[in-house]
Amino acid sequence: MSTKSAARPGGRSARVQQAVHEAVRGLDGELARERLTVPLIAERAGVTPSTIYRRWGCLRELLADVAAQRLQPEAPLAQTGSLAGDLFAWTQEYMEEMTSTPGRQVLADVLGSTHQERRTRCWQWQRDQLSLLLERAASRGEAPLPGVEQLLDGVMAPLIYRLSYAPHTLDEARLRHWIRQTLDEAVAAPSAARGET
């Protein structure tokens, strides 16, 4: 794994990253993707192409880095009063964003990266968000609750799979089904452990 992409830049490095990311986002909205080049991005960002190549290696990895940053959660999580409601609100927003044309491109860019760190960063953000939803549910006294891994496997895994290969098959009913099924399994697991049927 490249240590360059994993580093948390500060000072001048942070300013360069911000300028280059802004240049990518600006040009990506103005030009067809196939017309996007490192020299164009460098000119817009006010840096040399060699700066970009030295830091990101190639255009694909730069695009993946920008995409990974876009996937970082910004808005506060909705509070609906239940874990099921919170999960639905969060995954519905994610689904709507990722089925849009820019969203599909962002997902493709991240998944196309050869650097595991970028994909891991997105995975960790999802884990953090799910952990927060579970903490809220626990503070409300909801029980039993699934674990983060159960939510990743039961809700996020099928969502990401369909977003990647068949976004046209996604709808709210399918999201609700995955959430309900995962929460029902969490209820069934303690009962099975106690020998209840």
From TrEMBL:
GO terms for molecular function: DNA binding. Residues 37-56 bind DNA. SUPFAM superfamilies: Homeodomain-like, Tetracyclin repressor-like, C-terminal domain. Residues 14-74 form the HTH tetR-type domain. Gene3D superfamilies: Homeodomain-like, Tetracycline Repressor, domain 2. PROSITE patterns: HTH_TETR_2. Keywords: DNA-binding, Transcription, Transcription regulation. Coiled coil: none annotated. It comes from the Bacteria. This is TetR family transcriptional regulator. It comes from Kushneria sinocarnis.
